Amino acid sequence: MTDSPLIIFQPSGRQGRVQTGITLLDAARQLGVDVDSVCGGRQTCGKCKVIVERGEFVKYGIQSAEAHVTSASADESDYFRRHPSKLSTGGRLSCVACITDDVVITVPPESQQRKQVIGKSAGTRPIEIDPILHQYYVEVEPHALGERRGDWERLQEALAREWHLQHLTIDIAALRQLTNALKAGKHKVTVTVHGGENQEPIPNPQSPIPNHTSGRVLDVRGGFHEGLYGLAIDVGSTTIAAHLIDLTTGETLATEAAMNPQVSFGEDLMSRVSYVMMNGNDGLRKLTESVIGTLNTLIEKAAKRAKIAVNEIYEAVIVGNTVMHALLLGIDPTELGAAPFTLSTHAPIDVKASELGLRLHPAANVHLPALEAGHVGSDNLGVLIAEAPERQDAMTLLIDIGTNAEIVLGNRNGLWSCSSPTGPAFEGGQISHGQRAAPGAIERVRINYVTGEPRFKVIGKDEWSDTLPDADIGATGICGSGIIEVVAELFRAGLLRSDGRFIENQEARTKSQEEINPQSSIPNTRSYMRWHGPKAEYVLATAAQSATGKDIVITQDDVRNIQLAKAALHAGCKLLMLGMGVSKVDKIVLAGAFGSYIDPLHAMVLGLIPDCDLATVVAVGNAAGDGARIALLNKTRRAESAQLARDVNYIETAIDPNFQQEFIGAMHLPHMTDPYPTLQALGALPAKSANEPDGRSARRERRRERQEKF
Amino acid sequence: MTDSPLIIFQPSGRQGRVQTGITLLDAARQLGVDVDSVCGGRQTCGKCKVIVERGEFVKYGIQSAEAHVTSASADESDYFRRHPSKLSTGGRLSCVACITDDVVITVPPESQQRKQVIGKSAGTRPIEIDPILHQYYVEVEPHALGERRGDWERLQEALAREWHLQHLTIDIAALRQLTNALKAGKHKVTVTVHGGENQEPIPNPQSPIPNHTSGRVLDVRGGFHEGLYGLAIDVGSTTIAAHLIDLTTGETLATEAAMNPQVSFGEDLMSRVSYVMMNGNDGLRKLTESVIGTLNTLIEKAAKRAKIAVNEIYEAVIVGNTVMHALLLGIDPTELGAAPFTLSTHAPIDVKASELGLRLHPAANVHLPALEAGHVGSDNLGVLIAEAPERQDAMTLLIDIGTNAEIVLGNRNGLWSCSSPTGPAFEGGQISHGQRAAPGAIERVRINYVTGEPRFKVIGKDEWSDTLPDADIGATGICGSGIIEVVAELFRAGLLRSDGRFIENQEARTKSQEEINPQSSIPNTRSYMRWHGPKAEYVLATAAQSATGKDIVITQDDVRNIQLAKAALHAGCKLLMLGMGVSKVDKIVLAGAFGSYIDPLHAMVLGLIPDCDLATVVAVGNAAGDGARIALLNKTRRAESAQLARDVNYIETAIDPNFQQEFIGAMHLPHMTDPYPTLQALGALPAKSANEPDGRSARRERRRERQEKF
After folding, report:
1. Least confident stretch, A337-346, A606-615, A698-707, B1-10
2. Which of residues 494-523 of B touch A (CB under 8 A)?
3. Is the CB of residue A651 less than 8 Å from the CB of residue A373?
């Protein structure tokens, strides 16, 4: 036995000599080892459980088989009897076990305060769990007859004494609970604090009191109470998704999604803006109420699924595009419908859930991250929060495709963003047989380069069309990813010219085909191509294969609409590259549902995205929702994001003279001027000689383009 | 003409030389003359109107009959054409009229920013109008295509540029209005800010920017809009009164009052507390909703009477006792019903009106001043705000009588407060024919010291009973002031002994009577006194004079209950005097409706209040409401009051051993031990020899008292 035994903490390896008799928790704090504790040493919360290792640790010079800590107290034994799941060999509550001699202690992951969870986004970067809310268990002095302090004053003193929390305010909802919570808990209460710093009890009496920001008490419950939940919500134009998250573990307990009910007021954002313009405040109220109502339903479902009470949800982070952001808050979005696309504010907003009509805890806060610009909303900021391009060297292009495509380009040296008016074509709009991604929609397409014959896959079937009886296919239309693939495949198969027109000259077509596949016979496209005068259409699914009993075709206009959409997207990317002064990107991140479905190769063949190593093109799914989750779980990243939104350089495509120029240039497949070495290396493009106009024909092409005035 | 003409401002007399060509407003600011301006020099608000004097001002050395200012601009002429009521001879807008030569300017009272209104309280001290809210008229830069700032960011910049307001936040209600207000006002808006400092535009570019606190934007309206109203509300146990006040002029535009609907749940506070104890949260909710509902009705009525919109009311200050305070906020008051009388908080509370269910402007704030202690609420603090004893040398005793009497004693050297359990006797409770102050209640009583015959006055009649036919009197009972007078008069008439018992010994009575009025004949009291064995009752009103057809009498028990009440009050006063270490007070202030009705002489005869020059006993009516009004109109006094509440020393009568002792001693009329030189000088007491027991009989008295166990 020694007066200053050696203590070694695993897995950090931190070690040092401490005074005999102090608790393992105090020893951990003295050595800067991260051990959680909520109850402040009252043997109640079990968060500080550690494993006292037995055996010889020769490398540390410890050669005793004894665990050199004091025996369990009655309260500690009682704790483990009440929580048998927490008991493991050597398990002790570090707030009560005291060191008697040299010892090795393992801090299990669940006992670390700064736990990490892995994000679902592409980078799978761990998120450090450090939310803006915390719960504290404190014992409040009873009120003595004749003294002046009220319950709140004594609670403040307890929070200052035990947790160093200063300058707190209390919500009226918590004040209403306070007296009865103190009574029910016999002066011991669990307090939920929003924004209050210090998460640790006083480290040791010698340390200077750290500087604390003010916080707000949202809730007071009698006794020890665990239950601190939050919501990460992505309000999309079409879909609303809510993730219910345990703010102490980072675990997603439930995810609920629903159609955005505003669809019934207008499919796309602009028609909803028009609805408000036509119907005034009443229309605005209806749109707001519909989305709030749906959110409340999702919240109730999620809470039920996770078996928690809705009033244990104290925080929600909501991201969305600028129009959805306005409609959610009850702000008239009319100004967003026309130049100069004025936002009410681009700053992050914190507002009480009750003021929005959201049914969470009555004092719950809703955080809406900053907006970047009139067309670039907090959903895009969510992508930035999740992908963190500002922390990377790689020149990253982030693309989130919807009716507008939000695009961000950059790395740690700077970020540029813009919104590009791609229109609804990528979502199936303005396409003859276009439809939403739903069962029956054609989502994958391959065309036989020799015969011109298509095969395809519909959503809801695992097999391709050529392995199913026609009657079993039931194709209903073509969704976004299918549209991209069919146009890219038509081009690759030599059925489309680089300018987007179907090849009317069979000879030219044959020649091109021969070059791609010299061994092929002359293809017979008569079954798949139909000509109506100068205009053609391609039959993707026959009447027999379709659920409608009619052919599903791609028309010349469909191809033109895809060209317009992809040109807008490409022009946006190009503007940003000009802004950043780069000619090539290192990495392309496709965000959103659409990004997950499209095939990078086909997207590149279309010229939808600039040239890039295909291996570095990644789809990250709902990165906006991931960003909301990160802003919910990590207050530092949340705070950074407000600055991030201000730091992103924004290009207004509507007024940038380069945009029109790039847009026109980008109509060609894949692109008239940009090199696509990646595609050429892969042989993914039709031979240039056949489809790319030479000098003379190029001029003719352009003249014809002007005549067709797109 | 001179390069630095002399300008003299009236009535302040401030003068100085300024640069030729600057506006009169700038000149005023340079010389520190208080001239109001809301619109920041846009010739819109008219607040800065001054009178340009003509004529010779020999004493200033000005001998020209010309007004040496520039002529009115088209905008200024337009302003006066639109507001003909504002035009007076020499009237000019000081923001536009520029000085050309020596001139004398009068600033009319309505153009002074720091206007004062006279309070209704005893001191009739002027209140400086400096509310926590202000309206600002600003011009916001239009949004340029491609720029990033939103409406809120540009509004912040305008408020910083024109009014030096920094670190503002905006309420969601205002954010919802912002875009359309800017559109409606063509970028000119009137902004209502809560808590934001500086009320003046930038004085001149050379002055250092003053230090500003943060504020909150509550409302934004298009164009120039005047309308900034607040409510001062006193929620009493019985009556609720709301005063609607113009926060720019201090004028009370409307006052509405109603019964507290909680009366139907329990007449006194303790029975309402019991109701909550019996009915739990449901009971609490009902009590809260009833008072909020009544407040909303009063607010609507007041707004209608004042012809303003409810959503132009941005602030309410509400005072009340501690139980009403809790019930208004929806806080369980159970703890206030028993020792140790724990408050949820004694701090001032600011809460959104909407969170309490009050229908004002949706972003309106409700301020509830601090509570002093478990029994001493913000109504008492309101009295302190209004009376400001802490600023005076006179040792002042403030008494607010209700079911409990709140008492404060002190001066600038310190304040002591307590709550004394007077019980309901002073309000007519526990008195055989007691009733509330309402038409028909006997409020004034005089007894003929010779005959013992009473005469009285009922509420609602101007005449005394002896000048009316019996059938026209219609007495229904006795209210508090009547009870005090009848007991004091019975004592003065020698019908009551000092110990409170009716005089059974006619001989002694006769003797006393002779001493008071040696010329009187022996009175015949047989018509007015009735004896039931040892107990007697005094007939104040006959069956013929009463509305009930029965005699209205004062019984021995009634007298005893008044003795208990007055003893409690006296003991409270005595405790405070002990606390302050004084034996005499300089001034007594009676607050509340009851205080206005009782006669100081009778109160002193009863021993209700300690000895004091009767000329310094003043009734100030609803001083609590006055205090609320001051806290509404002057933010400095509001801030001071929070400190005042903390500074008042509180004595808990329930545990102070001196209280019981003083209480027992104070049962006698006027008091067993205290000298009342004032009364003796006035001959207002019966002769001491007859009624004051001598040593031997005093001991007998006390024994008898103990036997009667009161």
Report:
1. A698-707
2. none
3. no
Q: Are B291 and B328 in contact (CB under 8 A)?
A: yes
The verdict on a CB contact (< 8 Å) between A146 and B655 is yes
- Residue A331 to residue B179, Cβ atoms within 8 A: yes
Chain-chain contact of A152 with B354 (C-beta, under 8 angstroms): no
**For B523, what's the count of Cα atoms within 13 Å in the CB-facing half-sphere?**
29
Q: Please check whether residue B443 lies inside any domain of the structure.
A: yes
Taking 90 as the threshold, does the pLDDT of residue A322 lie above it?
Answer: yes
Q: By the CB < 8 Å criterion, does A318 face chain B?
A: no
Test the B interface: residue of A355, A371, A380 with most B CBs within 10 Å: A355
Chain A partners within 8 Å of B347 (Cβ) = 150, 152-153
Domain containing residue B92: CATH number = 3.10.20.30
Nearest of A390, A391, A412, A410 to residue A399 by alpha carbon: A410
The pTM for the full model equals 0.82
Q: What's the rounded mean pLDDT across residues A268-294?
A: 92
A interface test, pick of B140, B141, B145 with most A CB neighbours within 10 Å? B145
Residue B118 located in a structural domain: no
Q: In Å, how far is B447's CA from the nearest CA of chain A? A: 44
- Contact criterion met (CB < 8 Å) for A179 and B335: yes
| Residue B317 DSSP one-character state | E
Distance in Å, alpha carbon of B397 to nearest chain A alpha carbon = 21
Q: Does B440 share its domain with B503? A: yes
Angle at A692 between CA A686 and CA A698, to 5 degrees: 165
Give the pLDDT mean for B485-495: 89
Q: How far is residue B69's CA from residue A634's CA, in Å, rounded to a whole number? A: 63
Above 70 in pLDDT, residue A525?
A: no
Does residue A323 fall inside a structural domain? yes
> Diameter of chain B by CA atoms?
104
In a domain, A374, yes or no: no
Handedness of CA B619, B621, B623, B626 (dihedral sign): negative
Domain extent for A658: 392-424+571-708
Are β-strands B49-53 and B252-259 bridged in parallel, bridged antiparallel, or unpaired? Answer: unpaired
B182 shares its domain with B216:
yes
Query: Three-state secondary structure along B128-189?
Result: ECECCEEEEEEECCCCCCCCCCCHHHHHHHHHHHHHCCCCCEECHHHHHHHHHHHHHCCCEE
- CATH number for position B154: 3.10.20.880
Are residues B503 and B465 part of one domain? yes
Q: How many structural domains are present in chain A?
A: 5
pLDDT at residue B137 in the model: 94
The predicted pLDDT at position B234 comes to 94
Residues B341 and B441 in one domain: no
CB pairs under 8 A between A and B: 128
Q: Both B593 and B686 in a single domain?
A: yes
For residues A240 and A208, state if they share a domain. no
B540: contact with A, CB 8 A cutoff: no
Mean predicted confidence (pLDDT) in A388-416: 91
A178 touches chain B (CB under 8 A): yes
Mean pLDDT of B593-613: 85
pLDDT at position A696 over 50: no
Alpha-carbon distances, residue B3 vs A30, B20, B22 (angstroms): 74, 6, 11
* Chain A interface includes B176 (CB < 8 A): yes
Structural domain ending residue among the three candidates A222, A245, A261: A222
> Do A354 and A284 share a domain, yes or no?
yes
**Residue B121 pLDDT exceeds 50:** no
Question: Do B235 and B351 fall into the same domain?
Answer: yes
Residues B214 and B167 sit within 8 Å (Cβ to Cβ): yes
Cα Rg of chain A (Å, integer):
31
Contact present, B572 and B405 (Cβ < 8 Å) = yes
